[in-house]
Amino acid sequence: xxxxxxxxxxxxxxxxxxxxxxxxxxxxxxxxxxxxxxxxxxxxxxxxxxxxxxxxxxxxxxxxxxxxxxxxxxxxxxxxxxxxxxxxxxxxxxxxxxxxxxxxxxxxxxxxxxxxxxxxxxxxxxxxxxxxxxxxxxxxxxxxxxxxxxxxxxxxxxxxxxxxxxxxxxxxxxxxxxxxxxxxxxxxxxxxxxxx
Length: 196
What we know:
Blueprint: H1 13-21, H2 25-47, H3 50-66, H4 77-102, H5 123-142, H6 145-156, H7 161-168, H8 172-189
Helix pairs in contact: 1-2, 2-3, 2-4, 2-6, 3-4, 4-7, 6-8, 7-8
């Protein structure tokens, strides 16, 4: 049986994207189901604001649909989607900096639940873990954008160095060096808190 006759949920990413390119809305829904959590997690790792991460994720998929006819089936679909997400993130950063200069700065509240209380956890352990998570998130947020993006894509999303290089349109060695720099900076910032 060829990939084209498989149910959509069993199709490869590339086959689904080729069908999306042709305007297949059901294939687009399946692609959304496969990648929306991954993209939303990526944006959350960059902005640390749940609603904004959701909005940026939705914008990514809206753009994928708008430019679907340009998809050329080279490289991995994950890299293609994350490259679009990266562009949207960079656009958001430019807008943020412009708004900051004009005095209309965004105010974010971090509404991400740190720890869901469990009957099996000690309240002191929950408090310590919550505080540790806050320190880690603060440290990640202080990384330069390109290093933070590499760190989030590699260490949190688990993408390969080659996929990240494709997403960021840079050599794999640049990705490696940015990740090393990010890890070294995090080690310094989190010294005494944990071992990285």
